[in-house]
């Protein structure tokens, strides 16, 4: 059974396979013909996405796509195994590509080849490395490259409100892409405030949990922080709504009431929204505030 993150990668690439293979190879003449089985019985891990492609110059060949949330220092050995097994299984030459989504710690060097020597014998495997934080957001939106739309906020030059709005517009323009909005919201949370993200787009943690990428997010230890951020954003929105209701009904809100509202939990805020609509005075509302 393939990993959920692998299924997610395959789903992304399948949205625009020709655009994808031309991007990873840098060759506009390459065409994708088929997404292949990427499981190998000799090893326990499942590789990401194998695409059978062709070009006038190279005829049929394989493009091996390994998408990593963060670079793993064991990746050179994995890429070597990946190429050997794929070429053995499909009897075609392979063009391996490693796509790193988030930058690693500054102390980690990203390798672009496997190069070892043992007892005078050498083994080498080159592969292309694409770091998404070095890819220009403007180019992704302009080409366009739909599989990369969810990553726009973490691309080079993509961490702005205007670029997020452009990415949301691009996703909503195609019904096959709007399922990617939760993933876009997740990556936007690395560079923008969550209340702003919520204002611009739909943010549904339930949908994100069902995303094939969520297991990768959990493994990175990022999910808890995102969930906390969402809850804080919702609390901030509820506080603002509660104060607006009180101002509309009773004009001014004393500072001491505003301070007490700031300390309320999300559950308390939601209960007090109904209270604010039914009480006859601020004094009566104050009586409902938790001590």
Structure description:
The strands form 2 sheets. This protein has a 5-stranded mixed sheet, sandwiched between helices. The chain contains 13 helices and 7 strands. It is elongated and about 85 Å long. Strand 3 (59-70), helix 3 and strand 4 form a beta-alpha-beta unit. With 291 residues, the protein is α/β, with parallel strands linked by helices.
The neighbouring-strand order within the major sheet is: 1-2-3-4-7
Uncertain segments: 1-7
Radius of gyration over all CA atoms, rounded: 25 Å
- Shape field: elongated
A few lines on this structure:
The chain has 291 residues and is of the alpha/beta class. It has helices at 4-14, 17-25, 75-90, 137-142, 161-172, 181-188, 194-200, 205-209, 214-219, 223-250, 255-262, 266-278, 282-288, and strands spanning 31-36, 49-55, 59-70, 94-102, 113-118, 121-126, 128-131.
């Amino acid at each position: 059974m393939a990993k959920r993150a692998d299924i997610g990668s395959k789903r992304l690439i399948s949205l625009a396979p020709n655009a994808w293979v031309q991007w990873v190879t840098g060759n506009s003449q390459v065409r994708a013909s088929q997404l292949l089985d990427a499981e190998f019985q000799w090893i326990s891990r499942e590789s990401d996405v194998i695409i059978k492609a062709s070009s006038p110059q190279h005829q049929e060949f394989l493009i091996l796509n390994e998408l990593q949330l963060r670079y793993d220092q064991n990746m050179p050995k994995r890429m070597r195994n990946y190429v050997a097994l794929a070429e053995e299984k499909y009897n075609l030459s392979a063009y391996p590509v490693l796509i790193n989504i988030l930058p690693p710690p500054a102390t980690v060097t990203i390798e672009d080849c496997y190069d070892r020597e043992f007892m005078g014998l050498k083994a080498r495997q080159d592969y292309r490395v694409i770091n998404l934080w070095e890819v220009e957001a403007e180019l992704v939106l302009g080409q366009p490259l739909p599989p990369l739309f969810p990553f726009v906020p973490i691309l080079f030059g993509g961490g702005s409100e205007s670029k997020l709005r452009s990415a949301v517009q691009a996703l909503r323009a195609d019904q096959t892409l709007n399922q990617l909005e939760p993933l876009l919201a997740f990556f936007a949370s690395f560079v923008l405030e969550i209340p702003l993200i919520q204002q611009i787009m739909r943010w549904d943690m339930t949908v994100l949990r069902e995303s094939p990428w969520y297991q990768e997010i959990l493994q990175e230890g990022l999910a808890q922080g995102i969930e906390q951020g969402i809850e804080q954003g919702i609390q901030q929105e509820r506080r603002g709504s509660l104060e607006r209701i009180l101002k509309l009904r009773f004009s001014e809100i004393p500072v001491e009431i505003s301070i007490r509202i700031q300390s309320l939990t999300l559950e308390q805020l939601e209960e007090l929204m109904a209270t604010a609509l039914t009480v006859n005075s601020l004094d009566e509302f104050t009586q409902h505030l938790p001590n």
